[in-house]
Design goal:
Elements lengths: L4 E3 L2 E4 L4 E6 L9 E7 L6 E6 L6 E3 L7 E6 L4 E6 L8 E8 L13 E2 L3 E6 L1
Parallel strand pairs: 2-11
Antiparallel strand pairs: 1-3, 3-8, 4-5, 4-9, 5-6, 7-8, 9-10, 9-11
C-alpha cells in the first residue's frame, strides 16, 4: 500500500502563493505518474495537474494554467505544486495521487493511491 502525505496548505490572501508537497516512502514513486486534484465543498473532485515519472511531460487544468507549476524530485520521493496568483475560487482540499500508468491522466479513476488532502483557503 502506497502512502502519500500532503503538506503546505493554509490560509492565504488572494494574489498570494503556496507550495504544496506530497511525499511517500514507497520507492515505486520514481515510476509513478503523479497528480494533484482538488475538491471544494459540495463539488466533485477535479483535476489540477499531473506529471510523468520522468518529469518530461506535465498537464494542467485550464483554470490553473500559467499560475500553478507541478514538479517532482525522484530522489526525495516528493511531488510539488507551486501555486501563484491564488484566487478565492482555488479554495479547496488538495489531494495528491499516484498512478502506475505512464499516461498522465486527468481522471481520478486512473489513479490508484491517494493522500489525505491538505486544505487551501484563499481569502478575498
Amino acid at each position: 500500500q502506497v502512502q502519500l502525505v500532503e503538506s503546505g496548505g493554509g490560509l492565504v490572501q488572494a494574489g498570494g502563493s503556496l507550495r504544496l508537497s506530497c511525499t511517500t516512502s514507497d520507492r515505486s514513486f520514481v515510476t509513478n505518474t503523479m497528480g494533484w486534484f482538488r475538491q471544494a465543498p459540495g463539488k466533485e473532485r477535479e483535476f489540477v495537474s499531473s506529471i510523468a515519472w520522468s518529469a518530461d511531460r506535465t498537464y494542467y487544468a485550464d483554470s490553473v494554467k500559467g499560475r500553478f507549476t507541478i514538479s517532482r524530485d525522484n530522489i526525495k520521493n516528493t511531488v510539488y505544486l507551486q501555486m501563484n496568483s491564488l484566487k478565492p475560487e482555488d479554495t479547496a482540499a488538495y489531494y495528491c495521487a499516484a498512478s502506475p500508468s505512464s499516461v498522465i491522466s486527468p481522471y481520478p479513476r486512473n489513479y490508484e493511491y491517494w493522500g489525505q488532502g491538505t486544505q487551501v483557503t484563499v481569502s478575498s
